[in-house]
């Protein structure tokens, strides 16, 4: 009597349109699953072509190459005697669907299209795919000839069905369907499905992992069953980092946990579980059994195969474990670091260049690169041959072995302090000391010559010389002189990124890193085309508050004592003249709001969907102990004026690691106008009426 089933799930670092690499990683996962006795293997969503293909899904080439990869999988001996569940786009009756293709021994058992498409935030699946709206309905799918030649099948079932093996019943969900209020696993479980599978393309957001884990465990807590979740991992060519967390749960408890952040391209989880535990768990839930007696049945595809062995009495089964969650500081240390590693190795560049100002933001960015170097050394120490091969390509040395993070950092990371006459010696010293402690190749330079030359050209043409406010200039002059400095730094950053390695006799170029945080972007507290303009930005989706906590984490865990003075210094752009050799300009005074307030504004604007009036109504209660309604009104108006005046800057925002749900990223996450009526006359008048009434 078969009771113990052995199943496998995985997290794969797939890359959009990298069909060859994706196929190789799928094969590796199947090999690992089979070597550990698994009889069923689940992979991530759209793993064959990679999840992030975007408008490439419209192309017939994407469909063609996906079927070519599927043909390779079907005809390979590696896929024999194991049910393989892979993801790819499929065109059925001229409609594109996001599908699971489930096959066994060169025969396709079922093509299961996605029912609930992800279409909010970063996701636009309805742009490329159509949901399958025919519940419990199956049609014939006519296979392309390239597949017919391998399987000998002309048609296969396509639709909302489940698999009935000799010993159990399996039903599939695809990513968003787990998050939907009417998840398919509810009805499937009532219809006797014992094993639920979910292939995901779920990205990392700070403090989100527990939500996914809770959803998986709750899926089987009420109804019993085994739930298997696979997920994409890594950067597949966009702003998102897919954070793995493959898992297997039974009867509401986790039995196998995959890593959330890792440099392993292929991670496989295998668990052996007792089906009788599911049946006995369900037996005493009378409400479930009453509902099950009335459920509409799913079409069942019969499979002459078992996930268990006939003689399995002595086979050990997995026991529940406690899920270990990372702290937000650990997430910042690991997630963006893994994203940077993927971007670096896949872009085939030789490292990074960072304008290091000695402030919190650029220092946090430097620490993330150092964390990346630390992760690379750990992976190599643990025997990760892929990471070692990539590291050798990056440094152009076939014998190199990264063992010390500081030494590896010296090879691939250049930091540059760009001083001006408005820079203090304190920030210069802080940048230099941090560079020494993380091991980066550090450059000190002065931009005054370039700034004076540019201002000199303007003066020569116009006959006027702009001055800072402290020297009697206007606010317009003051801002323009600050912007010149900031933009010169961007030009120099790219020049040094292209040629620094050339001067050192080394091949390749460097990726320029930006370091504007999410709050500054929201407020528009940055110069358009300054050092916030870079190739990529690992902290662009992280708040100032979280970055400060991350800096403290680095002091304690990486022993970077240089960060103590950086933490204690007030944030400053250092673009205005010093007073008695000391910085007089501070970020919060310039912005007219604190970073803590900015985080609140950001969450209310995006997550709570609050316009000016709604934000005011919420804040008069939130801040009733510290602000009068009139003060709250003034703050809200100031924020919306500054936000709308500067919104145009979001159109040129450097691609940033997505870490917060209140990101103002204009690319596809936060779609809004960039030309506003910045008086907000109607909205502000509503606020004023409410203030007067109060």
UniProtKB/TrEMBL annotation:
**Which pathway, metabolic or otherwise, does it act in?**
Cofactor biosynthesis; NAD(+) biosynthesis; NAD(+) from deamido-NAD(+) (L-Gln route): step 1/1
What are the GO BP annotations of this UniProt entry?
Answer: 'de novo' NAD+ biosynthetic process from L-tryptophan
Q: Which residues form the CN hydrolase domain?
A: 5-275
Q: Which domain of life is it from?
A: Eukaryota
Corresponding gene?
Answer: NADSYN1
For this protein, the record's InterPro entries field holds:
C-N_Hydrolase, C-N_Hydrolase_sf, Gln-dep_NAD_synthase, NAD/GMP_synthase, NAD_synthase, Rossmann-like_a/b/a_fold
Which UniProt key words apply to this protein? Answer: ATP-binding, Ligase, NAD, Nucleotide-binding
> Tell me, how does this one assemble?
Homohexamer.
The record's family statement is: In the C-terminal section; belongs to the NAD synthetase family.
ATP-binding: present as a keyword of the record? Answer: yes
SUPFAM superfamilies recorded? Adenine nucleotide alpha hydrolases-like, Carbon-nitrogen hydrolase
Q: Which GO terms describe its cellular component?
A: cytosol
Gene Ontology MF terms in the entry: ATP binding; glutaminase activity; NAD+ synthase (glutamine-hydrolyzing) activity
Could you tell me what this protein is called? Glutamine-dependent NAD(+) synthetase
- PANTHER family xrefs: GLUTAMINE-DEPENDENT NAD(+) SYNTHETASE (PTHR23090:SF9), NH 3 /GLUTAMINE-DEPENDENT NAD + SYNTHETASE (PTHR23090)
Which source organism does the UniProt entry give? Answer: Eudyptula minor (Little blue penguin)
The record's CDD domains line, in alphabetical order, gives: GAT_Gln-NAD-synth, NAD_synthase
For this protein, the Enzyme Commission number is 6.3.5.1
